[in-house]
Amino acid sequence: MEYKTNQDAYVDLVINEMLPAIQKEKLADYIDVFCERNYFSPEQLDRILDAGTKAGLKPKIHVNQFSVLGGVEIGVKHGAVSVDHLEELDENDIIALDKSNTIATALPSCSFFLGIPYSPVRTMLNNNLAVALASDYNPGSTPSGNMQFVNSLACIQMKLTPEEALNATTINGAYAMELGNELGSITLGKKANLIITKEIPSLNYLPYSFGENKVERMILSK
Known about the structure:
Blueprint (H helix, E strand, L loop, with lengths): L6 H19 L4 E2 L2 E2 L6 H13 L3 E6 L7 H7 L4 E4 L5 H8 L4 E4 L1 H7 L6 H6 L4 E3 L13 H10 L5 H8 L1 H6 L17 E4 L7 H4 L6 E5 L3
Parallel strand pairs: 1-3, 2-3, 3-4, 4-5, 5-6
Antiparallel strand pairs: 7-8
Helix pairs in contact: 1-2, 7-8
């Protein structure tokens, strides 16, 4: 509570005390900041990411859930692996992402739960951006990790094709976690992590039958 009205003091705490301890004890690989009104400002985001990258952490940030503040461009500047949310997006964001290796990650079940606009994924794809889909599983805005439902929302609400949604939830999701060389597709040399569905008439049935569990078996390799 002591930092509720003094965000800069909390940022100082993160930079001067938390990050050195995290670096020393090797407690994390990534650093995340939620840049939004009433949370962390773009300036604070920039400071934290600068300190985090110097401490050897890679950015994966949450931005543009309710407003466009320039957080996407700051994330790209610091080499963010992914930028999540993006319910709001402008031309500068698209340009920044197009010139980067950062994965744009949409969170449709968050939009469903909160009743807010869905990420303009169709616009992203039309601009050749790499898009992943995720659940944003957390108790505050998305109390579900059901990726089958995420896949359905992507097709029903965001107008992705079943093929585009599958791509975004598999190989692009793997790249958003820096695991694209190990997971995300059935490829020689990758881990054989597979989902076997029940008998379905076509790929289209996966998003169409929302709420129904189509998975019969999971195979996870060591």
